Amino acid sequence: QVQLVESGGGLVQPGGSLRLSCAASGSIFSLDAMGWYRQAPGKQRELVAIITSRDNTNYADSVRGRFTISRDNAKTTVFLQMNMLKPEDTAVYYCNVKSRSRSWALQDSWGQGTQVTVSS
């Protein structure tokens, strides 16, 4: 099994910044991609940003230029630096890791979610 531990959410004023972290551990033989999704009340969960095993990145149009996804050197922790936050960024943010076990089974793992609230 894969364990994901998220941290870094909170309350911030519009225009402020937050940094989310997600540490992955467990039965990971190979990491395919790590990403962040978010879900606002009454809305579907949506992709925010993703980084692949080759460090290619992709962002939702609504956050491009404000958010940056990155990983540590060990490539087991993924970060989301969120700048110029807007009230519409308010949501529960979920870390997602797509990995392979030693038997090459695909593992699609989710973090517990961390609340981000942007409000004055």
**Major beta sheet, specifics?**
7 strands, mixed
Instruction: State Rg.
Output: 14 Å
Residue-averaged pLDDT: 95
**Which structural category do the helix and sheet elements fall into?**
mainly beta
The 3D shape can be described as: elongated
Number of strands: 11
> How much β-strand is present in the residues?
over 45%
Describe this protein with a few key phrases.
120 residues, mainly beta, 4-stranded antiparallel β-sheet
Can you put this structure into words, describing what you see?
There is one protein chain. With 120 residues, the protein is mainly β. The protein is built from no helices and 11 strands. It has strands spanning 2-7, 10-12, 18-26, 30-39, 46-52, 57-59, 67-71, 77-82, 91-100, 106-110, 114-118. The strands form 2 sheets. Strands 2, 4, 5, 6, 9, 10 and 11 form a 7-stranded mixed β-sheet that branches. Strands 1-3-8-7 form a 4-stranded antiparallel β-sheet, with no helix packed on it. It is elongated. It starts with a strand and ends with a strand. The mean pLDDT is 95.
Would you spell out the secondary-structure blueprint of this structure?
Blueprint: E1 2-7, E2 10-12, E3 18-26, E4 30-39, E5 46-52, E6 57-59, E7 67-71, E8 77-82, E9 91-100, E10 106-110, E11 114-118
Parallel strand pairs: 2-11
Antiparallel strand pairs: 1-3, 3-8, 4-5, 4-9, 5-6, 7-8, 9-10, 9-11
In short:
This protein has 120 residues and is mainly beta. The protein has strands at residues 2-7, 10-12, 18-26, 30-39, 46-52, 57-59, 67-71, 77-82, 91-100, 106-110, 114-118.
